[in-house]
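B., you asked whether I could sanity-check this one before it goes into the benchmark set. Here's the sequence:
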Amino acid sequence: MNEPNLENDLMNCDWIIEKCEKSEPYSQNLYASLCNRIFIKDGKEWTCSWRHSGIIVAELRSKKFRENYLDWYCSGIYTSGNEYIGEGDITQEISEDLLKLGWTHRSYE
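And here's what the prediction gave me:
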């Protein structure tokens, strides 16, 4: 049996892809949520770097936009006056969406 992999689950989830394509704030929130967090499914942990978080979001949006990880990397510094969140934060919507995919999360201790 393959190890749980959040990246694969996101890439194969049509409704997550659709949300990312329709909403830049949702995409940024997903990027920020993937940073500095530990995700758990079936008792196994999954993590990724800030750069890889940006790669994942750019790939989710790639059918509609021509982006790369730099479009998202460190985007949490632009939180003033918009719907962006800081790296390592997670919105309720993102948390609920990941739970629908079977993933829970926690911050690094």
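One thing to flag: The chain has one domain: 6-107. Otherwise nothing jumped out at me.
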